[in-house]
Design a protein that fits this description.
mainly alpha, about 80% helix, about 0% strand, disordered C terminus
Length: about 400
């Protein structure tokens, strides 16, 4: 889409206006992502809803599927992984919790996929955005397919994390609350809208918040793409490419650091989707950045584990370390193995090309992968599965939830 001469002129000759507009659109995007997560939490019951879903994880495969469903519904892998830490401390077997962690990794990718829909009206931009969003999906999907069978057979993650937890467990605590500035600037706005929606009956307010958040995402992505295309000179583009897309290593490091700072991989990966739609970064450049985001997001479970004391402290740290090791091993595997290096990229490009030709594929993909398939498994577990005789004591879960609230963990 071409820029109007008046807009282009104002953007190039009024740099303060330009960057104020870009910052405002980025802020609108972040608020929209926060509101979508808040609405989903409202409708699904938040951490209590995730806990109820996980009660039906009677085997590893069900654990993965329900991890996807819980995170897609709650829209926060921070919340879900923290709940898993509390559940493990309360008696959920680690071998069942590990697939839950893998599923949560996959479920959190729905957010940036939704962000890509902001370019749905522009065929070329939509295809690029969808590719950039789903390369994260395919990376997590292929990681599950590779690591889950190995873990079921040989338990390398469980054993490695147990050995590390035995070395590091103690009474130490950590605080990252001062770093989580994204939550500090977006949650007040989302909370204001949520309070206004409380007058609506039942869960209707939650659905309204979701729709408002999606509208904010669409508006910000559309105008952010136009603005970036107009102002991204060679110097600015080179600077961005050096930070994100110069090399695989720099992309991984950038994604890790940014995600640790904002404590939200969804926020991190959602920010680069409009850049892909605008043609500033390619899917190949974005892929390492999203892998780094997977590592950075592990800070949440590690922080949650510090809230557990007593007999469950070591096993809680163990599952948090499983989350870290799983993502680190996944990044290493897909970075050095020749036939795996390009597999997520090729898959995302193929899906993006198909979606650009027929937008129905996009909605079918989102609802099928994140809701219909996991929902069918969840329904089957409820109807025919035996509910496991385990669950975290209320004190453990409440401790974790207090810790997460203290750390002001943003939506994942």
């Amino acid at each position: 889409m071409t820029q109007s001469p008046a807009l282009t002129k104002s953007l190039y000759h009024n740099p303060w206006f330009t960057w104020t507009l870009i910052a405002s659109l980025v802020y609108l995007l972040l608020v929209g992502v926060t509101m979508v997560g808040s609405g989903f939490k409202w409708v699904s019951g938040g951490s209590e809803g995730a806990e109820a879903i996980f009660a039906f994880a009677s085997n590893p495969l069900a654990g993965v599927i329900l991890g996807i469903l819980a995170t897609a519904l709650v829209q926060s892998s921070s919340t879900v992984t923290s709940v898993i830490v509390g559940l493990v401390a309360g008696g959920v077997p680690v071998e069942i919790a590990i697939p839950m962690i893998m599923g949560a990794n996959m479920g959190t990718t729905i957010t940036n996929t939704i962000v890509s829909l902001g370019n749905v009206r522009e065929k070329a931009a939509f295809g690029k955005s969808f590719q950039a969003a789903t390369v994260h999906d395919f990376f997590n999907l292929y990681s599950i397919l590779i690591f889950l069978p190995i873990e079921i057979l040989f338990h390398p993650l469980q054993k490695s994390a147990a050995a590390l937890a035995d070395l590091f467990v103690g009474d130490a605590d950590a605080s990252m609350s001062s770093f989580n500035f994204i939550g500090a600037i977006t949650k007040p706005v989302a909370k204001t809208f949520a309070q206004g929606a409380e007058v609506l009956p039942g869960n209707l307010g939650g659905f309204v918040i979701i729709l408002l958040g999606i509208a904010m995402i669409f508006a910000s992505v559309i105008y952010l793409g136009k603005t970036l295309r107009a102002v991204m000179t060679h110097k600015a583009k080179d600077l961005l490419e050096r930070a994100v897309g110069r090399s695989k290593f720099s992309g991984i490091v950038s994604g890790t650091v940014v995600t640790v700072l904002v404590q939200s991989s969804s926020t991190t990966t959602s920010l680069v989707v409009p850049l892909a739609g605008a043609g500033i970064l390619t899917t190949r450049q974005i892929f390492p950045f999203t892998m780094g985001a997977n590592i950075g997001t592990c800070i949440t479970a590690l922080l949650a584990a510090t809230a557990i004391s007593g007999a469950g402290a070591e096993v809680a740290l163990q599952i948090a370390l499983v989350h870290l090791l799983y993502n680190v091993f996944g990044v290493l595997l897909f970075s050095v193995t020749p036939w795996l290096k390009d597999l997520p990229i090729r898959s995302a490009e193929a899906l993006g090309t198909r979606v650009a030709k027929n937008r129905v594929w996009a909605m079918g993909y989102i609802f099928g992968i994140f809701f219909l398939l996991p929902g069918a498994v969840f329904a089957g577990e409820m109807a025919f599965g035996k509910r496991p005789e385990h669950g975290a004591p209320a004190s453990s879960l409440e401790s974790v939830e207090r810790k997460v609230e203290q750390e002001n963990v943003n939506l994942e």
